[in-house]
Every structure is written in C-alpha cells, then in structure tokens.
Write a structure and sequence with these properties.
Elements: E1 2-5, H1 16-24, E2 27-30, E3 46-49, E4 52-53, E5 56-57, H2 61-73, E6 78-82, H3 92-101, E7 107-109, H4 114-121, E8 135-139, H5 153-159, E9 162-166, H6 172-181, E10 189-194, E11 202-207, H7 211-218, E12 224-228, H8 235-238
Parallel strand pairs: 1-6, 1-7, 2-3, 2-6, 8-9
Antiparallel strand pairs: 4-5, 9-12, 10-11, 10-12
Helix pairs in contact: 2-3, 5-6
Length: 252
Amino acid sequence: MALVGAGPGDPGLITVRGLELLRRADVVVYDRLVDRRLLAEAPRARRIFAGKASSAHALPQEQINALLVRHARRGRRVVRLKGGDPFVFGRGGEEAEALARARIPFEVVPGVTSAIAAPAYAGIPLTHRGVASSFAVVTGHECASESQGRVDWARLATAVDTLVVLMGLERLPQIARELVAHGRAAATPVALVRWGSTDWQETVVGTLADIAERARRARLEPPVVTVIGDVVALRERLAWFDEQALPIGAVR
C-alpha cells in the first residue's frame, strides 16, 4: 500500500518512485486534480475516483479510508494517488492513520506540492536574497474571523515574509482584510495562480487592497494558489512559463 504524491498538475513532476509504484499497481484510488495521463501508466489497474471539490465529494473521507484498507487486506497492490503532496493539506495523514490502525504496511511517497510549484511556474520564488528569507503555507478554508477558525492570521500577518495560501479563493476578501488589519501593508503584492504547472495556468496579480476585486473581475475559480509578499514583484522578470512577463495589476 502506498500513498503517492502525483505533483501539482504537470504529469512530468511525479517522482521516479511514485511512477514505479503506479506501474505495478492493482488498484489506483485517485483525486480530482491528478492529471489523467498518469492513469495510463497503470493500464491493468482498477481505477477508483475519489476526488473532492468544495462541498462536493465523490466519497466521504471515511469511505476512502475503508476502501484503502479493504483492497490492501485482499492482497492487492494499492496506490492512493493524491494531487501535490500527500501530507500537505491532502488528508494523507488521516489515511495513513487508518492504515496503521488496520496494521497494514504502507509507504508514503512525497510529491511536489502546489504551494511551491505553482509560484515557481508563475515566476515567483518564495524566498529571495534581500527580499524574503521565510515563508509559511496555510489553508484558506479557515478564516480567523470565523468562530471555528484555527489559522491565526493576526500572528501570520507579520511573522513571515511570504505567505502561501491554499484553498483560499472563496475567503480571499476576509483573508486580505485580516492581514491588513493586523499590520500587513495594503500595498503588499499578491498573486493568484490558477491551475499552476498546466496548460491552463493563469495568473492574476495585484495587492492586498485590490486582489479580491481583481479575482472577481477575472472570474477565477479553484484550484488557485495565493502568494502574498514582495517576492511577487519578481514575476515581472522571472515568469519563464508565460509567453511574456506581466506587470503587477495585469491578468494573463
């Protein structure tokens, strides 16, 4: 049994070990953001879709856990193919816990997380000498203005140089307000990278003051990685994946 990170979208970014396990698999349980071309690497495997979008899950997490346990107990070589990295907001830890409770041996194969890949494909280094020496990756599902929020935006606002927010598009207005209210400059550059590392990649750039409105006008939909910090300005020179670099405020 293996939990394999498929990478952020570009099928070429899966690891050698991940590809090796995929080719030997009897069962592949895959996510929504996995490039379907990777499934062709397991032509004899049974393929089970377990994708999730906001408020729309093909299978509840408990059923996915049970599915993995059931097939593994039957002696099948099971690959749980997950977008990005299994242990970065992918609930791979929960699946690993279920396997451990069932005493099923498993392997975790790290993947390239979109938190790093999407900015890189947009020409945005998360750290850069003289600009940023620290970064944090957080989920945007939980906003500090909500009673159940567990992300401390008040501390994060000025704790690190670069903030990367996953799954935060729907709460972007609240997140921007929280960061500004707790000391982040409203003029801080922000980039929204949609479908990073794929042929459908597009990037919207602006500032904390206007990024929510720019996202609305661009009609962006998930999946989107949000990058907040001065490193975003480097995109003007480093946007290697684009046909041409665009200035802050432009839409690709």
